[in-house]
């Protein structure tokens, strides 16, 4: 299996270039976010060391 890179759709950095916010867009109509959606953003937060959602 190949190496999988994980990148959010966007991230915001402060002046010191620390990532302070990560985000991932989802295109859905009339549905709630899935458990997998929450796991994905939590994985981004862990990778980039950001807090909260």
- Which overall shape is indicated by the principal axes computed on the Cα atoms? elongated
Helix count equals 1
Helix-strand sequence: EEH
Instruction: Give the total of beta strands.
Output: 2
Strand order of the largest sheet: 1-2
Portion of residues in beta strands equals: 15-25%
Structural class: alpha+beta
Largest sheet: 2 strands, antiparallel
pLDDT averaged residue by residue:
85
Unreliable spans: none
Helix fraction, binned, reads: 25-40%
Structural account:
The chain has one helix spanning 35-48; strands spanning 10-13, 19-23. The protein has 53 residues and is an alpha+beta fold. It has a two-stranded antiparallel sheet. The protein is elongated and about 40 Å long.
Question: What features would you highlight for this structure?
Answer:
53 residues, alpha+beta, two-stranded antiparallel sheet
